[in-house]
Design brief:
The structure is a homodimer of 304-residue chains.
Chain A lengths: L6 E6 L4 E6 L5 E7 L11 H9 L9 E6 L14 E2 L11 E2 L7 E5 L3 E3 L4 E3 L2 H11 L5 E5 L4 E7 L2 E8 L1 H11 L13 H13 L4 H15 L3 H19 L1 H4 L4 E5 L1 H13 L5 E4 H20 L1
Parallel strand pairs in A: 1-4, 4-7, 5-8, 10-13, 13-14
Antiparallel strand pairs in A: 1-2, 2-3, 6-7, 8-9, 10-11, 11-12
Helix pairs in contact in A: 2-9, 3-6, 4-6, 5-6
Chain lengths: 304, 304
Amino acid sequence: MDQAANWIAVDWGTTHLRAWAMGADGRVLAAAASDAGMATLTREGFEPALIALVAGWLVAGRVTPVLACGMVGSRQGWVEAPYRAVPCTPLEPGGFVAAPCADPRLAVRVIPGLKQLAPADVMRGEETQIAGFLSQDPAFDGVLCLPGTHNKWVRISAGEVVSFQTFMTGELFALLADHSVLRHSVGGEGWDEQAFGLALDDALSRPDRIAARLFTLRAEALLSGLAPEAARSRLSGSLIGVELAAARPYWLGQQVAVIGAAGIAGAYATALTRQGAAPQVVEGDAMTLAGLAAARGLMSEGMQ
Amino acid sequence: MDQAANWIAVDWGTTHLRAWAMGADGRVLAAAASDAGMATLTREGFEPALIALVAGWLVAGRVTPVLACGMVGSRQGWVEAPYRAVPCTPLEPGGFVAAPCADPRLAVRVIPGLKQLAPADVMRGEETQIAGFLSQDPAFDGVLCLPGTHNKWVRISAGEVVSFQTFMTGELFALLADHSVLRHSVGGEGWDEQAFGLALDDALSRPDRIAARLFTLRAEALLSGLAPEAARSRLSGSLIGVELAAARPYWLGQQVAVIGAAGIAGAYATALTRQGAAPQVVEGDAMTLAGLAAARGLMSEGMQ
């Protein structure tokens, strides 16, 4: 049986839509997801896609607040929520943007992403995870690593995002594993921890060799039957190693927390630990939800 | 009007099939091409695809020799022509492999690629371009750079391929320009020589920053309207810069020739010149044809 939500939390990315029915006491009453990501929708398609997912949590004659983060706020999204410039706190209710809704039961606010002017950089969605992390550790002073399609390294101090840098490592891995000549060599889901570690060390010491190191996976598969799980782990280690070499100023001697899905966050934590860092690992989805709850709390404060 | 070929030269890659009708005097009588690349064919499909292209050059009751190079000799090709191990000359008629033919007018030989056991590496097709280059400059001692999907750097001495290394730079460029988030930012065919040069220098000095540098193109497009031709040129310069950093032992202080299509070969020549090298530039298709002619010459010698 469906139940009415006090408010609804939404994580709306390029390829996914996830929603949680939240109780007045902050508990999750229900969760739902669909593949109606931003990339699949025209501007008119957002409201129907959301209603299709959450209709059972709405009550006729009552307005249910909805808070959404992610690519839903991009220029190609439901409504553009202009980036806020760092340094700044991850969330600022004054920057939330109302999305146009025909259904009177919905009042949707979209959380804007953050931008950095020099070097140019942007994030959408991660600001909410950062807010979730800080809601649980407000005094944190250090660096957050948020692995994903576009990995973010973020300097945090005094509750603010000071600066950040994005690496395309996750997208490079997906392109190479699924669409390059290496797709023949890195199939499957297996993992070889030793191969990962050796490739990581090698890439950290000679990051320039990345394009040659990649083709070696193909050549070894052809000539000496390199196992797919070893090839896959070496691909991952090589790409993360190049990233860690460039991100050294972020993690060296800093307090580091890795926020992400278990598999990829674990790989980054392993890599950092191998370099002598002692990263904390935090589950990404939980931080998204905590961040949306923090945003809801900030809005409620503003209304008092 | 079609004319009979003395022999037929064939360049058969993953995505293309090209053939030349050759005269007894070595002149090109006719040329033809189709998109019946290896990737589009089953093993039984090769002979019909070839005949569809060259039928007009064949004479009933006479056997026309065909010499083919490229992926046609791979495990997924018409017939597997096992790699020869370097160091070796680029061509060795004893290694040419007969492809099974039902049509009595055809006698097809496939030229094998080269392999290197440590570090593992392979080439197919480039060995023929190398042979073409050496047929015109037999005393060449130095390094060949063959840009393409999988760029090769090849050490040549005393008419032999001594060693080589493959970089996936070309495939990375294509994946990023056509299939990554950067596709929104690098559209079109324009070129910005200055942006290319600056990105090249930057990548050569800090190759580890590649994954961050890539995302900067996206961020600058979003935040400051980076022009597509500048983004495209910077993408190319960044990737070539990382390659040149790793390939420095190949080109530094060496005699270098770049063999390839005009656009990409020109970009590599510009990049190398900027680093103080003085590369020669040679047209790739001409070297393929010269190499096939050299292979034909070696076979004829063997038959005398």
